[in-house]
Amino acid sequence: MANDGAQLWTLNQRLLSVVLDACSTELAELGLETKEFFVLAEVEASPYPAELAAALMIPKASVTVYVRNLVAKGFMRREIDDEDLRRHRLVLTAEGEAARDRALSALAAEFDRRLARISSRDRSELQRILLEMLKSPG
Q1: Measured by CB atoms within 10 angstroms of the end CB, which terminus of the chain is less buried, N or C?
Q2: CA distance 3 to 66
Q3: Which residues form the HTH marR-type domain (predicted)?
């Protein structure tokens, strides 16, 4: 198999999908859809809906739907931003933090099961490669 970008991208996407699918029961037990989980996981780093949409690369309208659902489930709340009273900041509730942490633990455990198939040296190399790929070009 050639190591071209499209094939590597496809393998990476397939791995992420397999891990998420393996955790779907745990996510469902927490009352989370997959995309809602991604919103929960990102909201502390990107607490404004527009930032969240950009970080997750999903439409703002979709973020609005996920946020509405997460607020209704008690995982998140909207607060008025003290620095700009026209803006709402998204904040996880204690229940939201617990759900996020349990979902992350389930995903990490499933990913760890797959990482256990490769040597410690290969895991270190994979981490080095991923960190290098995340660097901004230039």
Answers
A1: C
A2: 36
A3: 1-135
pLDDT digit string, tens, across residues 45-99: 999 999 999 999 999 999 999 999 999 999 999 998 777 777 889 999 999 999 9
Residue 5: both structure tokens together: 């970008």
86: tokens are: 């026209």
Residue 1 lies in a domain: no
Whether 2 is covered by a domain: the verdict is: no
Structural domain total, the chain: 1
User: Helix (H, G, I), strand (E, B), or coil: what is residue 87?
Assistant: strand
Residue 76 near residue 96, CB atoms below 8 Å: yes
HSE, side-chain direction, 13 A CA sphere, residue 68: 6
Say how many C-beta atoms besides its own lie within 10 A of residue 115's C-beta.
Answer: 15
Tokens of 89: 């900041």
Cβ atoms of 55 and 48 within 8 Å: the answer is no
